[in-house]
Amino acid sequence: MCKNRILLISYVIICFVNIVDADTIFIDKTYERDDIYMIPLQPQGVFSMSVNGYVKYNSIGNNNCIARVILVDTKQDEYLFDEFDSRFDKEGLFLGKRETIMLDSIQPLYLKIICKNSSIHIDYLTYEVSPDAIGGLMNWKSLLNQNATNQVNKWNKYIFDNKKHWLAEVCEDFEYSYDNIKSIFYCDDDNYVSSGIEFYAGGIFEIVPSDYELQDNSLIDGNMRENVVQFVDEFDWRSRHGSSWITSIKNQNLPSNPSSIGNGGCWVFGPVASVEAVNNLYYNQHFNVDLSEQEVGVCSHGGSISGKGGVSSIALKYIKENGVCNEECMPFQNDCTILCSEKCNNPDERIFITDYQYISCNIQELKWNIINKGPLISGYSHSYLGRTDDGRDTVKYCGHSMSMVGFHTIGEYDTITLIPSYPATICNIDSIIYPGNELIGQTYWIFKNSAGTIGRRNGGYVYAVFPHSGNTIRNMSSTYKIITPIISLKHTDDDIVVTDNDNDGYYFWGLGPKPTNCPICCPDIPDGDDSNPAVAEMNEYGVFNEYEFPYHTLTITEDTCWNTDLAQCGNIIITNNATLTLSANLTMNPAAKIIINDGAKLIVNAGNVFNSNIRVESTGTLKLLNNGTLYHHSIGSLEVEVGGQCDIEHGNVLML
User: Fold this and answer.
1) Is the pLDDT of residue 171 over 90?
2) Which of the pair, 14 or 332, is modelled with greater confidence?
């Protein structure tokens, strides 16, 4: 969301320093806790700045030692001098100028010193007020990408050394500024420990709890095996019923705007993505309506104006009460200064949800709701100890909201989807889960992200494993399901499509209850996979029952005449040398057949067979008289075995 340009400082720090040169400020102070250093006689028009000092970790081997020195200017923009992370970096001397080597004539205001299980000694600051000081240097974006590349190399070494199963990579269309990364992933302040997801390129991302969270004795690490054996091993709405129900990947980060909604806008993008998918599923049609994140972002008042995101439940509440218009009505401009009133007056579409409901972070609850209610709104979160403005310890949070579209239980010899183009020489990371791996038996959750698809990112999806205690997941953000029916400006429940695409006698009609427009031959249980005739009934856990044709077979064993209109859901078998004479309309279930056994006859005398699918055995007979007509369904056929009789000269065989 928008960056708050107002600095609230509840106390004043008075520093007495010696300013020896015009471009040097000596500090000579050690910091053991988070603090602020107000720059005396703030210089104006600064084009470059650096800080000199050294860092010490409180304990060697502690993977949660963090040290940061951050420059804040009078506009409240932040620039990272330097950052030390005990997972990657050694303690010692530093000359910090990661993002401050090239500045745009700013006026520095103060430094933020972040000490998490560490201490920082700052010797002095240097700065340049002449643009000539940065002559010939690369542009700002290239500078950030170079810094990001250095971080990626550190992450990939860490991944390799710790036998993780994901890859880090720089994404070309993302601005890897410190301020932007912190906003993207909902970090309340500067004391957080990065999970590395800003560099995720593919594979199984393992969410690691913070040191603060590890103090909770109820947290048992992810080696605990799950106890959800009744559920299917995998379920993914990107490949259900022969197609994907998920709309295209969005990018909350672009275009860049100083008053950005997108850089902290995952709280909008996650809910809207799930609503788009559930809209498809409710109507059983691939409408793929592109809904307006901009409207929800600026009209719901659910987000902070400080660039740190917002609340997904408020976004859902807005969609429930006000609906969300199509993208064309209020296009995404990554700008929260746009007024809500600027959306169009007559949108082509407006989608309402009936309600939304919180889901506990329990593996069984999550799997059940994904299978039965469609994509969820979820993500990941971290809690950690930070500082208030007046210096008190307090719990802070990092998080990222996405749309959860499926899950997969990890098994032996599973192949992990990495990035095929990634140079193998850079980092040899296992792409196969071998026996004995601690991930076996755990679930990875499939998230539709909102960071685009350019360059990498697993096609725009994140596969993540969470720490858990038994079936209770930790570090998963607040999760919600969407309650149908969906209310649309363009469509009603009469537009729900009922399909039997695989001709197995079962029908799929989306996420809601059995609609009133179902055909006569439509079981009460929906088809669990409308692209596979070998399976049909699926229980609430995603497991298929043994396939059985859902209708009784009608056997004709003696001469019979039908002269009134009839509908038949099951197969018809004419046997025992009997003759069935049809002189009215017979509507068949497209999945059912009429089988004319040896010596039996079917005579269509001025009648019609709709959805005909007929097999004539070797001595059976089919005869059309007085313009009797067979209307084939697209999957229907007329099969005549050698020796069978088929007289259609006085009738018709047509396609519906």
Assistant:
1) no
2) 332
Q: What angle do CA 492, 372, 234 make, to 5 degrees?
A: 130
Q: Whole-prediction pTM value?
A: 0.88
- Listed in sequence order, the residues at least 6 apart from 1 whose beta carbon sits closer than 8 Å to its beta carbon are 260, 261, 264, 265, 297, 303, 304, 305, 306, 307, 308, 309, 310, 336
Rounded Cα distance between 536 and 525, Å, is 9
Residue 101 CA, chain-centre distance (Å), reads: 37
Whether the link from the prior residue into 523 is cis, omega within 30° of 0, is: no
Q: Is 321:248 a contact under the CB 8 Å cutoff?
A: no
Q: Please determine, for residue 187, whether its predicted confidence score (pLDDT) is greater than 80.
A: no
Minimal CA–CA distance to 272: which of 293, 297, 287? Answer: 293
Q: Return the SS3 of 441.
A: coil
Residue 619: strand pairing partners? none
Looking at residue 512, its pLDDT comes to: 93
Alpha-carbon distances of 123 from 42, 66, 440, rounded to whole Å:
18, 19, 50
Nearest in space to 506 (alpha carbons), one of 489, 485, 484, 528:
528
Distance between CA 653 and CA 634 in Å, rounded?
A: 13
Whole-angstrom Cα distance, residue 56 to residue 500?
67
Does the pLDDT at position 383 exceed 90? no
Rounded CA-CA distance 281/258 in Å is: 37
- For residue 430, what is the DSSP state? -
- Residue 542, pLDDT > 50, answer yes
Residue corresponding to tokens 């909604």: 261
Q: Which residue(s) pair with 384 in the sheet?
A: 396
Q: Which domains occur in the chain, in start order?
A: 18-137 (2.60.120), 147-481 (3.90.70.10), 554-655 (no CATH)
Q: Do you know the residue count of the chain?
A: 656
Is the distance from CB of 201 to CB of 169 less than 8 angstroms? yes
